[in-house]
Write a structure and sequence with these properties.
The structure holds two protein chains of two kinds. Chain A is an alpha/beta fold. Chain A has helices spanning about 80-90, 120-125, 140-150, 155-170, 170-175, 190-200, 220-230, 245-250, 280-285, 290-295; strands spanning about 40-50, 55-65, 70-75, 100-105, 110, 125-130, 205-210, 235-240, 255-260, 270-275. In chain B, about 75% of the residues lie in helices and about 0% in strands. The chains are: A alpha/beta, B mainly alpha.
């Protein structure tokens, strides 16, 4: 990592847009003008539960995720934000013992239905991970990997996709002269944008982001957040974040998760507390637990 | 105003303590074990070099190209057929053992990690590591040589049996070391499992797989016992893999060193030197190729 300033809760952050605002309440950029409910529903969840073998990690998640919006998942550690996110593109399939119960519809189709292929699902629903994870290949090959998997082999066609994706991830100007050098030679922030470019190169409909900025310094974080605003018009974005300010800055809707103690097994299970427009969650939450969390009294 | 005036000077020098004594003792022990490892190695290289270099490089390149004298007491070169034989036998053994071993390890680690058959295969591979090489030689003698006679291929079969468990073990370890986040990245792009293994996992593990295979090749190149049964001890060049007796450097070292004639013993030293050089060159070449591959990615 090039910078030591970790993006941790509590660390004073450089925030050009909200620097002068009072720290008590997280300020949402502006009241959302459009009616949020207008865009079509992409994910329809009802009483979703995720199990790791016998352990129920998350329960009771009922929500709609809308097209071309940024939906943020916030909440304390262990509340199941990432677990739910990984359920959206069947990344739990790789983990032995993990399974999903309840309803998870993607455009009306049950993602865990019988004839649903996980690879087809992931083709449409891409994911950016917490830690930048470029392949140990050249920058060009990192981006071209997905299109090649989908059968695109034409040199000029790949060139076009690589340039378009890198421009889309605001990385083109920084790397256009060294496309043949290794993706691992980039800085942390550049690597994460490379991973975003790699994800959008396969033209997914949804981009899932699992704490994409937690390993980045504030400047790189700001760039990724700007990028998310640009990507919103083309993709539906779901982001998990530990950083409430980030959720307030980038998202249209926010879901607050928390943990509750299971009296029978004495283990903590995550659950969805409240899901609403971001402006509502941060200014006038309906649930007391949300209120406590966003004002910093808990979690 | 001098704020530091009353402060005694800070002492940051190292204190003599039991910890520092322990450190010295442990460092000494480590140096000793390095020496204990290095001394036999250097002694072997030294004695082989001292007696073998002169033989091998006299009238260069006679020793490396001339055929082996049929009459053992006659002085003079060479070891040409044995060099070709070693390259043939080891090369064919590598061609059999490395693809099979890598595929086997991919099955064990990627597809059958929990099932009973995979566990059985893994157990058998471990057992195979412990089988003495001469037993492998007997096995191939019964299986192949009795029906088809001496040939380089029989030797290659025996050596590949010896190499297989080493390649499987090394490859499986390397596959374990491939970071899970690379697989996740590939899966998240809608890549199938087989394609992920081919395009992400195996390339990431390649340097380790090459190292493991080299270890197996180097070990096999020096094997003598299994070749005695299967290859024979020809004195002429035999470029055919499946027919007629062949020879190898290790067989020639064994046969010539057993001889009572000084000329033959000299040839044994020369052959030993040649085998060391050959192993060294092959290892070096493979390392260079892997480094090239790794830097291109």
């Amino acid at each position: 990592m090039s910078m030591s300033t970790e993006d941790q809760p509590g660390t004073p952050r450089v925030e050009p847009r909200a620097a002068a605002k009072a720290p008590q309440r997280i300020q949402v950029e502006q009241p959302k003008a459009k009616n949020l409910a207008e865009t079509p529903i992409v994910f329809d969840l009802e009483k979703l539960e995720v199990y790791y073998s016998a352990f129920r990690a998350v329960r009771g998640v009922t929500m709609h995720i809308h097209k071309n919006e940024i939906t943020a998942f916030i909440g304390p550690s262990g509340c199941g934000k990432t677990t739910v996110l990984r359920g959206f593109n069947r990344m739990h399939d790789v983990i032995p013992g993990a399974r999903v119960a309840g309803k998870l519809l993607y455009h009306g189709v049950d993602l865990y239905g019988e004839n649903v292929s996980a690879t087809e699902v992931r083709r449409r629903i891409g994911m950016v991970f917490q830690k930048p994870n470029p392949f140990p290949k050249s920058i060009y090959d990192n981006i071209a990997f997905g299109p090649r998997v989908n059968g695109i082999t034409g040199r000029s066609e790949l060139d076009t996709i690589v340039e378009k994706s890198l421009r889309g991830a605001a990385l083109w100007d920084e790397v256009k002269d060294r496309l043949k050098s290794s993706g691992l030679g980039l800085s942390g922030g550049q690597q994460q944008r490379l991973c975003i470019a790699r994800t959008i190169a396969v033209e997914p409909e949804v981009v899932l982001m699992d704490e994409p900025c937690s390993a980045l310094d504030p400047i790189a974080t700001a760039r990724i957040e700007d990028l998310m605003h640009e990507l919103k018009s083309r993709f539906t974005i779901v982001i998990v974040t530990h950083n409430m300010q980030q959720a307030g800055r980038v998202s249209d809707r926010t879901a607050f998760f928390t943990t509750e103690l299971d009296s029978k097994s004495d283990r903590r299970t995550g659950t969805l507390v409240e899901y609403d427009a971001t402006s509502k969650i941060f200014t006038n939450p309906s649930d007391e637990r949300t209120e406590h969390y966003i004002s910093g009294r808990f979690g | 105003m001098n704020l530091l005036a009353d402060v005694p000077p800070l002492d940051l020098s190292a204190k003599r303590s039991w910890r520092s004594v322990k450190s010295t003792i442990m460092t000494g022990l480590m140096v000793l074990s390095v020496v204990a490892v290095a001394v036999p190695l250097i002694a072997v290289l030294w004695s082989v070099g001292a007696r073998g270099l002169a033989v091998a490089f006299k009238d260069f390149p006679d020793f490396f190209v001339k055929e082996i004298p049929v009459v053992a007491r006659r002085a003079g070169p060479g070891m040409g057929p044995a060099i070709v034989g070693t390259l043939l036998v080891t090369g064919v053994a590598t061609l059999i053992a490395v693809p099979l071993g890598v595929l086997g390890a991919v099955y064990l680690h990627e597809y059958g990690i929990k099932n009973r058959f995979a566990r059985l295969v893994r157990f058998m591979a471990t057992v195979m590591t412990g089988v003495p090489s001469i037993v492998m030689g007997l096995f191939v003698y019964v299986l192949w040589t009795l029906s088809f006679g001496y040939s380089a291929f029989g030797g290659a079969l025996a050596l590949s049996c010896l190499m297989l468990p080493v390649v499987i073990g090394a490859t499986e370890q390397m596959l374990k070391l491939v970071p899970p986040h690379l697989r996740e990245a590939a899966y998240a792009l809608g890549t199938t499992k087989s394609r992920t293994i081919l395009t992400v996992v195996l390339p990431a593990a390649l340097p380790g797989i090459v190292s493991g295979s080299l270890l197996a090749v180097a070990r096999a190149a020096g094997e003598t016992a299994p070749l005695l049964f299967a290859v024979g001890a020809a004195t002429e060049y035999n470029p055919h893999i499946f027919v007629e007796a062949n020879t190898a450097l290790s067989i020639q070292i064994f046969a010539n060193a057993n001889s009572s004639f000084v000329a033959a013993q000299d040839r044994a030293w020369g052959a030993a030197m040649t085998l060391v050089l050959l192993t060294f060159l092959v290892t070096l070449a493979a390392r260079v190729v892997t480094a090239r591959l790794a830097s291109r990615r």
